């Protein structure tokens, strides 16, 4: 074959999904992945949202290497030596079609790539694409080492760094303020310990914690997800705040792990893997043009991610964008037009997706996540109110208003700050 219909960079969720759908439609597809196997280079907390995947890979949970169905979600504020949690448990979350699963990318990405191969795509791991082949502004293929792979369309699904697009002058520069760094550990614990400790009904069920606070005042948060016999624990913090703090990422993670609640949850575990990777902070206003002459961009290569404090969704946003891109490519193939105009329906298909609409609904979360008080004041603030409410002392007790006033004084937050922050929280996640 002297030319593929579609050449794809990266076999992450975006690349593998595009390959699967395009090959299913009968197109000649090649995927080039730099990792020794798909998933070998990928870092992720590891929660996937089931209904989005089910739409593309029906009943995937029957075959895919998922870890646990997540029936419990907790939002936890980590104060100084204290913590306050909002726990949500649902039977529905642990019954088909489920809400979310924990996955380990080193197992899950190969499964996704297998689906693409079974549909007829050629997946080539262990090769790095060095450049996009561009002539007169039109992308016409990939170059990996000495090999050139010409294609009608290139799907750029190379993940957060988006280096190939940058080198080809096909994207705007990314700004440090829009990027975070994720640091993750996989911690081994016996399966029964995890099931009991996280109050799961069985080894098939799991829990997910979103943790706010105790990141050394750096904007960001932590996550803790249960796998079968490991925990995925990590923090995702704003990269320029981390830099300004002059602290090493592992120091911030170690301090995070030293919080009494986190320490109790991981007690007795052995760290079996450590990894770090940049991740976009997401943001509706940051969605770029997703196509050009001869190419489309999907997943985090296009900065697509949704973070609304409760959920961090990069993998399902990636597969939905890839599905929209695949639809546009199939239409372009029918028209025989692979120009930007021919591929432009990608944007329309993406805009019709629930993911895009969710990104729009939560567009106010981005400025909220810029608010430092959310990370270094309110976790303590909430905990000190709880302390007043639950503790019985020898001095007269405070009512809720009194506890609030005391927390305000203790944490140096003015009424005006509180009103502004309440408004921002409302704009970000509630109204
Ligand atoms: C710490 C952390 C926690 C996260 N937690 C979650 C979570 O719980 N849930 C969630 O949904 N999202 C989470 N995310 C975000 C999520 O991981 C990404 O949004 C998602 O992986 C994007 O998928 P993708 O296919 O676009 O890119 P990626 O998964 O990054 O895949 C890109 C692929 O391209 C390959 N590649 C790159 N360059 C080249 C090249 N030049 N040649 C060949 N191959 C190349 C890479 O090896 C990789 O396999 C998290 C991210 C981090 C860092």
Distance between the termini: 54 Å
Helix content: 25-40%
Query: Any idea what the radius of gyration is?
Result: 23 Å
Report the biggest beta sheet as strand number plus sense, adding barrel if it closes.
9 strands, mixed
| Quantity of strands, as a count | 19
Number of helices: 17
Q: Quickly give the structural class.
A: alpha+beta
Mean pLDDT: 95
Bound ions, cofactors and other small molecules, one mention each? flavin-adenine dinucleotide
Classify the beta-strand content into a percent band. 25-35%
Shape: globular
Low-confidence stretches: none
Description:
By secondary structure, the chain is an alpha+beta fold. Helix content is 37%, strand content 28%. It contains 17 helices and 19 strands. It has helices at residues 13-24, 50-56, 105-119, 163-167, 191-197, 239-245, 249-257, 260-266, 315-335, 340-343, 345-351, 354-361, 365-368, 373-376, 378-390, 400-411, 415-430, and strands at residues 4-9, 29-33, 47-49, 66-79, 82-89, 100-103, 122-125, 131-135, 138-144, 147-156, 179-188, 205-212, 220-226, 230-238, 270-280, 291-292, 295-297, 306-307, 312-313. Strand 4 (66-79) and strand 5 form a beta hairpin. It starts with a strand and ends with a helix. The relative contact order is 0.15. Bound molecules: flavin-adenine dinucleotide. The site of flavin-adenine dinucleotide has 43 residues, from helix 1, strand 2, strand 3, strand 11 and strand 14.
Entry summary:
The protein is of the alpha+beta class and 431 residues long.
